Please model this.
Amino acid sequence: MNARDSEIMAQFLRQAGHKECSSAAEADIILINTCSIRAKAEHKLISLLGALRPLKKEKPDIIIAVAGCVAQQYGAALREKMPIIDLIVGTQRIYQIAELLAAARRKPGLIAGTLDKSYQIPIFLPDAATRRRSGSVSRFVTIMQGCDNFCAYCVVPYTRGREVSRQLSDILEEVQALLDQGVAEITLLGQNVNSYGLTNSAGGRLCRFPELLRAVAALPGLRRLRFTTSHPKDLSDDLMRCFAELPNLCPHVHLPLQSGSDAVLKRMNRRYDRQDYLALVERLLQYRPDMALSTDIIVGFPGEDEADFAATMDMLERLRFDASFSFKYSDRPGTASANFPDKIDERIKGERLQVFQRRQDQISLERNRAYIGKRLEILLEQVDAVSCSGRTPSNHLTHINHLSARDIKPGDFVTVVITDAGQHALRGELAS
Ligand code: SAH
Ligand code: SF4
Model:
């Protein structure tokens, strides 16, 4: 979602006549987009700002702007700590980035941060420059902002505000504009796409998420459709059925489990248990036997004991995810769990993370090796003189050997025979 926000700000800045340069030393404006999902992301911002201090001293006219979740969360307090910041741009204000930068030139210290309950995501159409920069292969489309779930550990409801769905017609128009530019794959983005359509304080035509998926899938020219992220508590049967019905909906679901322990899931306020999650995966596989599954895991949530962690490892053994993103729990300001007792020692968190990741790596390798010998359709993302790569419908990164003389380019679909597999990628040969 942050990557998408950065693209949007870059497009607005280009439209306002700004140009990108290749180093901070050449820049008149430095815009830093930030994430605050874990403490580590926030530390990165502080050290980057520290490194920029000498430059600001040397060139006092340079504008330093901070956007995104950290900007939203700390607002004025961030500027008090780091006075070199000239502009703070909250998560709902990125669409006004060009005007805000112009205003910050006149009045350094500007803070544009309030979250508005009746916020509406503006219509946003890609321009030709964006197309040239990013190629025409795979693009994100935001369908909603914010989150109302309040998982105990999560800062998103505070940094991105209440959940707001975008109007159906705006989404369809944006996807159509991308297809007209030759984009082949669209990923619909939201913190919890399954609750799309349930909230839009500003009105406009909405529908439930499966209906949105069907409408987008039907747009002529869309070869591949994906979405992320799904909350297990809201994954409806109607949505799962879409995987059987829509030929361009790719067989991959990212379904964050977070923990395999019912007691921890309860304290996390996730509102599903192990059995619910197992039943969902079983159902998904009934609709699409070739479904790939990835997840997010947090280790070391407050109070997580050895038995809780063993329950997470047990879910890994039962479900054998294709891939997972796993993290050490970190306290985030304002969240419920920041005040929970029984915080887990950093060393123990580190050990648990290593145990989980080692086993996941083995499983990913085993699962990837099962593709050897298969013929898969790859959407090419990167092609140069010596190598070429793309993704399978199941979202596996695939490197392709021995480019033949055939004229292939990013955005093409090719058939590849898989010849080898590692933990993180497949390897194959172009089929004749
Ligand atoms: N909306 C998505 C998740 C967005 S955050 C969803 O509900 O699935 C991405 C991931 O960051 C989460 O799934 C979680 O695994 C991790 N995460 C969030 N807050 C965290 C925290 N305080 N400490 C460690 N990991 C965290
Ligand atoms: Fe955070 Fe939970 Fe919302 Fe995901 S669903 S963004 S983890 S509060």
Remarks:
- Residues 346-369 form the longest helix (24 residues).
- Residues 200 and 346 are 40 Å apart (CA to CA).
- Residues 37-38, 153-154, 191-192, 229, 231, 256, 258, 296, 298, 327, 329-330, 332 surround S-adenosyl-L-homocysteine (ligand 1) (CB under 6 Å).
